[in-house]
Amino acid sequence: MSSHREAPEISKDPVADNTDTYAFVSPDDPSTVTLIANFIPLQAPWGGPNFFEFGDDVTYKIHICHSGDGVPDVSYQFNFTTTIRNPKTFLYNTGPINNITDTTWNRPQTYTVRRTTRNGGNSELIGRNLTVPPVNVGRRSTPNYPRLGRQGVHDVKGGRTVFAGQRSDAFHVDLGSIFDLGTLRPFQAAHLIPSAAAAGVNGVQGFNVHTIAIKVPISDLTADGSVPTDVMDPKATIGVWATALRRKSRVWDAGTNQWVGAGSWIQVSRLANPLFNEVIVPMAEKDRWNYQGPNNDSQFAQYVTKPELAGLLPVLYPGVFPNLAAYTKPRADLAAILLTGIPEGVVPGFQNYTGPVQADMLRLNVAVKPTAKPNPLGLIGGDPAGFPNGRRIEDDVVTIELRAVAGLTIPLVDPTFTPDGAASKVTDGTTDTNLRTLSSFPYLGNPASGSESMPGTPAA
Hints:
The chain is an alpha+beta fold. It has one domain (10-424). The protein is built from nine helices and twelve strands. The protein has helices at 145-151, 175-178, 276-280, 286-291, 301-305, 308-316, 322-326, 332-340, 397-405; strands spanning 18-25, 32-43, 59-65, 74-82, 109-117, 123-131, 153-156, 160-168, 208-217, 237-253, 258-271, 362-365. The strands form two sheets. Strands 3, 4, 5, 6, 10, 11 and 12 form a seven-stranded antiparallel beta sheet that branches. Strands 1-2-9-8-7 form a five-stranded antiparallel beta sheet. It is globular. It starts with 17 loop residues before the first strand and ends in a 55-residue tail after the last helix.
């Protein structure tokens, strides 16, 4: 959660596992959009001697659709290469790493970035031999990690900026409690199996992820290369998602002591809206969902318009959600939020509608400018620059989606419905207790240090 270990098969392949996808107009440069895809969930900072890294055998992509059909119009592709400088040592580094080019780092990674257009019609190499920072080993091995992180930011062709490397996970959620029969600690006194109310516990605190981030001009993403300024202009909305691909088959090469891939590239993981596969798609269909493109998502629409969680809340919290329990109409509000975008006329002065094709994409209206003081509740908190208009790092997507599923957003499409009082209060009780984010690209904070972290407590 958001999509940390969200499907049975991809949970066995963390290097290719999407955890979170973000898309937002850059707060410090509103002429650009920042796209972020995180992979490799729940990284303990002390995970040596074979520390976490991107997979050389994985192709990572961030996709943009501006035609509304759930098929990529623009994609940014990232491929990584790992080098072993000294094959005779078990050490990740043989001394302090003061710069990302230091030869004391024994296992450096570099990568290339390509920009491709629909169906591979145009493929342009926009960056090559770009360096990845090492992981944050500790104060002796990586004594000035913020500098290493800054050295991992690269300007590439076309006025674009990229970063790939370890970051602190910015997502917050009470993993332990939610998956214990849907318990929300602040409200667990009302649970079917009650206990005293308590504060939420951020189960992601102290863990790192691997981030791929790219900041591009808005004109790079729109259908006609324009920079829309009218929020109601249909051309202002784009769809965004991220994927990971592997070769169709692989065999063990005893000569090189590694797996070797063969055949075509196939998608093994994808992610757009947070919690979609995690909470909405049934377990038996989660792996199939990961292999599908968003243009095929109409087959999963039944789980959006009649979500299992909306039926569970009144059962798990007896008497708390009577209006939700009595509501039998298809959830048109959730279909708009997750599958089509919000059409004009639903929220005054706002839309991020991409058309009738049902597709799980983060829908970002690029004409909505960043707010000076972002509200983590995004659109339901009166801040149209936040989720479900794209997704910012600070957006509290767990609370937003819990309240939407609990019925808070039904009146947007069905004025006859009155939400239960709890719908505007439900939360998992967590706040952002992760390491501080940055005010500039790549925005996600420096990762927790291996030697300085205690279990559950991050250390800068």
